Amino acid sequence: MTDEIRQFVQWVKDSNNIVFFGGAGVSTESGIPDFRSVDGLYHQEYDYPPETILSHSFYMGNTAEFYRFYKNKMLYLDAKPNAAHKKLAELEAAGKLKAVITQNIDGLHQAAGSKKVLELHGSVHRNYCQKCGKFFDAKYILNSKGTPKCDVCDGEIKPDVVLYEEGLDDETMRQAIYYISQADILIIGGTSLAVYPAAGLIDYYCGNKLVLINKSTTPLDRRADLKIEGNIGEIFSQIEL
């Protein structure tokens, strides 16, 4: 165990007011690709760049092409929670972790047992008919042909995920700001801290135990009180409750 990990484990042991803020790197160990990693979606060839396809305007004007990409590249319904997801759920159950704030849309935190999960960018597991509002799960979307249609009114179904050009949910942001501003320890993991407004949430942290866990550098490394490089699942596995 390195000195940095030893310090991290001790901080976690001593605190009952921890908040975790995570990005795509939390789920890569579950087999879900990171958009900005070397092997991620941004480095794979497609008809359009992912940023374009995953935009509100593209969805509205090229719905069928949006869904062709979305079903192939965004739905990993067989993915399972990894060690990081599981340890975060354990920390919450032990009364130490107050909230998970995630940029991910895969639902793996809930699958691991976490209860207080603030999904900044929505979830692939929630899909609604734009005409009548009927709910559909991700499996229905994956198994549909072309653009998913409602089995009641034949309206188009839209996933409850935040696309480029769309704003984040105000209530989710309000809660995220509240939990971060009240936290003793803020752990940030698996995120490039390059996507705003989500990355701006770090500004609301008032404490002196900002932990940054990542495989690579971020624009906000200098803000961290403790920086650990490595696989987040391996690092979290060293926490004993």
UniProtKB/TrEMBL annotation:
EC number(s)?
Answer: 2.3.1.286
Q: Where in the cell is it found?
A: Cytoplasm
The UniProt record gives the binding positions of nicotinamide as F35, I105, D106
User: Taking every annotated instance into account, which residue ranges of this chain make up the domain Deacetylase sirtuin-type?
Assistant: 1-241
Catalytic center at which residues? H121
Where, in this chain's numbering, is NAD(+) bound?
A: A24, T28, F35, R36, Q103, I105, D106, H121, T191, S192, N214, I232
Residues annotated to bind Zn(2+): C129, C132, C150, C153
Q: Which family is this protein grouped under? A: Belongs to the sirtuin family. Class U subfamily.
Instruction: Give the protein's biological function.
Output: NAD-dependent protein deacetylase which modulates the activities of several enzymes which are inactive in their acetylated form.
Give the protein name, as stated in the record. Answer: NAD-dependent protein deacetylase
- Species of the source: Roseburia zhanii
The gene coding this protein: cobB
